[in-house]
Design goal:
Blueprint lengths: L1 H5 L5 H34 L4 H50 L2 H4 L4 H25 L2 H16 L5 H44 L1 H6 L3 H54 L7 H42 L22 E8 L10 E8 L4 E6 L5 H6 L9 E6 L2 E2 L5 H6 L1 E4 L8 E2 H5 L8 H10 L3 H6 L7 E2 L8 H13 L5 E5 L7 H14 L4 E5 L11 E6 L2 E6 L1 H7 L1 H18 L1
Parallel strand pairs: 3-10, 3-11, 6-9, 9-10
Antiparallel strand pairs: 1-2, 1-4, 4-5, 7-8, 11-12
Length: 583
Amino acid sequence: MKRWISYVKPYTAYFILGPLCMIIEVIGEILMPMFLGAVINAGEDGTLTVTKSLIIAGLMILTALLMMAGGVGGAYFGAKASVNYANDIRRDIYNKVQKFSFANIDKFTPGSLVTRLTNDVQQIQNFVNMLLRMCLRSPGMLIGALIMAIYMRPKLSVVLAVTIPLMLLALSLVIINAFPRFTRMQTKIDKLNNTVQENVSNVRVVKSFVREKYETEKFFAANRDLKESGLSAMKIVILNGPIMTLFMNITIAVVVWIGSQMVMGGGENAMPVGDLSQFISYVNQILMSLMMLTMMFMSTSRAMASAKRISEVLDEEIDITDEKIKNRDAVVTKGEIEFKNITFRYFKHSHDCVLDNVNLKIESGSTVGIIGSTGCGKTTLVSLIPRLYDTDEGEVLVDGINVRDYSLHNLREGVGMVLQKNVLFSGTIANNLRWGDEDADDDKLIAACESSQAHSFITSFKEGYETELEQGGVNVSGGQKQRLCIARALLKKPKILILDDSTSAVDTATEAKIREQFKTSLADSTKIIIAQRISSVMDADKIIVMNDGRITGIGTHDELLNSNEEYKEIYASQMEAKASKKA
């Protein structure tokens, strides 16, 4: 509860004023039946005069105006409080996700995080809004009307002693059944969001493989699951209304039946018609307040399910932080890298290692190629340098300092990384490039793009560097996207540049030009090139051959051709494939 209460503190005034305004409306609700009963009784016994009518009418109008002011004020402050409350929760979830390491991100699907940031937070907002409008209004009306009813006719109020416990029992059963259903429904929303996001993001692949039918069926299945889960939850909500209405109608019918006998009975204990009307109004208010409490509890049930899912994100322990670093001011100056006895597993309880006792030293300013079969651990190895993951055993040193002892900002500022999946964001080409250096002027942008062989195709666009890119950079080709991502990394002027198969969509001639530019523009930087093509790394100072999480060979191209069977097999197969293409 401390977490949720902490979000109240900045908006304490709204959280206090909202319910207080609703109390004004409740007082009016309690007074109105008294005025109406007085008019009916005065008319019945012949004491109703024009003056008395005008006084009561004036009081009713004044009360109605106060009720309106209270209702509007309650709604206004409730909206202000709930919107700001939800805004702060959404902000904290987003900030927490931004701090996630890759290992943390792996625990949540993108669709699930989107649902938690949007739908789940919206449920919390709706609950807070309803709570502020009803937390005092419903109990206040219930208690006030109950006191007035008992004060007027204690014997007639016995009816309520029977119906209210039965209504509360029914309410409890509804809530017990509703909570797990709402939890399942939110999970189904996750699944649907994942399906839609995956399909929309990869629509070109879907169309190229003519998989529209399959994806449509997958969407229909997820949509159907959500529908069924939603109907299952809504059945409880739908059932709640008729049950409460049944109790209300039965209670009112019994009160009218017993009350009419008291009115018709005559004598000293006879009930005036105005009193019966007033008593029925109070019974209506009691039952309506119980109905509102039921709605609030239903909203609570759904909000609890959403709060649990939000807490899972906020409580996620971030495994890579700056809390225990020893050298907060350290920066990467040379780019020397050393892996000492590195062991790593994605699934920490698994016996199989992705990296198994890896030892490697990379000199500053050198160019190193890494080659090996798919899944052998190449990407995982280089991901340890900027601490996208942390090692299970061993240590990674940069300039002789354990990467765990750098601040994440300083470490990652010294490392430029072009990942396998090249990502561009909506906005201009220039804006995307300035991710590498937000203060870069046009000359720096052009220089970086010339080094990555991107300048020529950028200038072929009508708007040049101000060309708008669609989300994900889908309006440029794969090779163009790779060159833009390389240029973005170059603008950082990193001491360590990691290219993870980032020229796979570029022709060999262009790739050769990019590598040649590296020798001048990044002469003092350490360059690590992960590639599938031997031609991409054969000129490197050192080539690392990996297989099944281990280093199986280190040397120059010529050395490995003479000493490493695996490298020779890769080289022979690629040369053979190249020869067959020419033929």
